[in-house]
Write a structure and sequence with these properties.
With 255 residues, this protein is an alpha/beta fold. The protein folds into 2 domains: 5-148; 166-254, no CATH class. The chain is built from 5 helices and 9 strands. The chain has a 5-stranded mixed beta sheet, with helices on one face. It has a 4-stranded mixed beta sheet with strand order 7-6-8-9, covered by helices on one side. Strand 6, helix 4 (183-194) and strand 7 form a beta-alpha-beta unit. Helix 1 crosses helix 2 (67-89). Residues 238-255 have low confidence and may be disordered. The chain is 29% helix and 22% strand.
Length: 255
């Protein structure tokens, strides 16, 4: 499978308690595969709070938590992720055909989740996992991104350039701290991708990479009349053999 293969998962608005899901797999020089599913999926309020706490509060202060509590939440995340996998990727012969076509070559796959704004947080796609795998599918693929199904940004004014340069805020999540790959090594991929256009960008790194600092930097930039044109999120990779938190299920996304 070529590295440009893309699995597009479109999540429609909920109807009668079910979300219509459409899958489309595109690979160069291969027939396009399509499938549909209707899933009944909803996190309870407690599950939503546990997930938020695990991904935000716990990563900032892991030493102040009982191991039993962590194990319970990670078990819930694994169970809900496997439930989502079964409802989507094993729902019909057509969805199974798509999964069989990609499951052994996930490292070369890009997954795009498309949804409306109202339903973007309804389904935690980053948790989806095949019970036969030892981690979430989002951590296995080359890229896992979310996009708006019907974007309409014409009403948003474009900030003026800073001396002709585009302002970019670079946010790199490093949940394993010093055990993660160095920030410079991860950022090099972004810089290499900009290539000859690198001088056109004014890049600021988010330090420390926390929700509080992100909110502060965005607010300060807006109040100064110099908001960012691009906010780029990226998770660093741990060295081989280093365990990663079960909740760090997002690879990279930009907005």
């Amino acid at each position: 499978m070529a590295s440009s293969c893309v699995l597009h998962i479109r999540q429609a608005d909920r109807v009668d308690g079910h979300y219509p899901i459409r899958l489309r797999l595109r690979c160069p020089d291969q027939p396009e595969l399509e499938a549909e599913a209707r899933i009944a999926f909803a996190l309870t309020p407690q599950e939503q709070e546990d997930l938020r706490w695990y991904l935000e509060d716990y990563l900032q202060n892991p030493g102040a938590v009982e191991p039993v509590q962590i194990a319970q939440i990670e078990t819930m995340m694994r169970s809900r992720g496997e439930d989502l996998y079964r409802q989507v990727l094993t729902a019909t012969p057509d969805t199974q055909a798509i999964w069989f076509a990609i499951r052994n070559q996930l490292a070369d796959l890009r997954i795009e989740i498309a949804s409306g704004i109202s339903g973007a947080a309804a389904i935690p796609w980053e948790l989806m996992r095949d019970p036969a795998l030892d981690c979430a599918i989002a951590l296995r693929v080359r890229a896992f991104v979310r996009v708006q199904s019907n974007p309409s940004l014409s009403f948003i004014p474009i900030p003026p350039l800073d001396d002709g340069r585009i302002r970019l805020l670079y946010c790199c999540c490093r949940p394993n701290g010093t055990d993660d790959v160095g920030l410079r090594a991860v950022a090099n991929r972004l810089l290499q991708g900009l290539g000859e256009h690198r001088p056109r960008f004014a890049i600021r790194a988010l330090r420390p990479p926390t929700y509080e600092q992100l909110q502060k930097d965005l607010t300060d930039a807006k109040e100064a009349g110099r908001p960012f044109h691009i906010v780029h999120f990226e998770r660093s990779s741990s060295p081989a053999g280093t365990p990663r938190p079960a909740g760090s299920a997002t690879n990279r996304w930009s907005c």
